[in-house]
Amino acid sequence: MTVKPGLKLNFWDRLILGIAEGNLKLSFSTNVTSDSKILINRNILNRVKTIMPNLMYDTNPYMVITDEGKLVWVIDAYTTSNNYPYSQETIIEVDGFKHKINYIRNSVKVLVDAYDGTVKFYLTDKTDPIAMAYNNMYPTLFVEEEIPEDISEHIVYSEYLYNIQARMISLYHDVQTEVLYRTDDVWAIANQTLSNSQNNTVNTIKPYYTVVKTLDSDKAKIGLVVPYTQSGKQSIVSYLVGTYDKDNKAKLSLYKYKEGSNIIGPNQLDTQIEEDEKLSKEIASINVTGTKITRDMIIVPLDNTLLYVEPIYQVMLNETQEPRLKKVVVASGTKLAIGNNLEEALTNLFSQYAINIEIENTETVEGLVKEIIKANNNLEESSKNNDWQLIGRDLEKLQSLINQLEVKVNEEETLKQEKEQ
Q1: pTM greater than the 0.85 cutoff
Q2: Domain locations in the chain?
Q3: Angle 365-384/388-420 helices, nearest 10 degrees?
């Protein structure tokens, strides 16, 4: 359905409109004629809610420019429910109120012409039973044709939906019954200690849009990314990417590293930066009186590697407080570099100016012993049940932890001997 605003206004229309809007100039102005049109609901979210109140709408619409130069707002719309069978509940906030849901789909896109307010509803997922029910109830609501290509090629993955999915995947990435029952493999979204925090608090990294190039894609594209660590640990174990594929369909991909890969996490990298004399001096040189330093980290997937980019901004406290980019730190693999901008930092990363990263094993003997005890208890339980497949996995897990403990003990013994010498 296409909703076109604006009717021709006669005198009585203008009079009623002037009273309703509290502006009688609309009624008596000679500039308002019978050919004039007016948009009453100019807020695009209010417009779409008035037309179709049964959907939930994203509060962060974005604008696209068509090939003809028209400006079009794109609004993500969601179907939700709390009655989906055998599904985990979560809490979302809508218009300031919290709701429990266990089902959400981004099945509808709404396009609003930024000039004349024309609204078009597109059904983008015909496998959604709730959306199809609305389609049957209101047969003229959804536009039959596909979203125009000059708009669809600019559509990005919904950040609102991605946030919900990212939280769920931290627990449900491995849906084997025994893994969920034992909570053997719980992840957490990676943390970073932000330097602009007065109390040095640790904040969870928020999903961010960036250009990604993964192994299973033939070209770079805009996507949402968030990295995961094992719960209570710092090394990255996986990352989640939300993109649109070549057929303009939403695609959510999870990329996992092998156990023991020891991929450096944001906090570990920041520790390396602070402990390196050269890098810490360069950053300290812009942290002068009357300024504040802010920094944040972006992790960009490039094929089978991760590129860490940390822009460092200087804010003049006695001026407009607009952040100015002063330094950029980049890292990949076991190399780390700094520059005055991204291009310079990347050049230094692949030169003799790069700094070697020493990834410290953050496991403790005490922590490994606790994990070994838990793994041994799991092995006893699977042995009682004669579950040979599970016994094999438990034995493998137990052996891996014992090997890690042996390495950690040897490291501590070596360090102790070096100190005694």
Answers
A1: no
A2: 1-40, 43-155, 175-356, 365-420
A3: 160
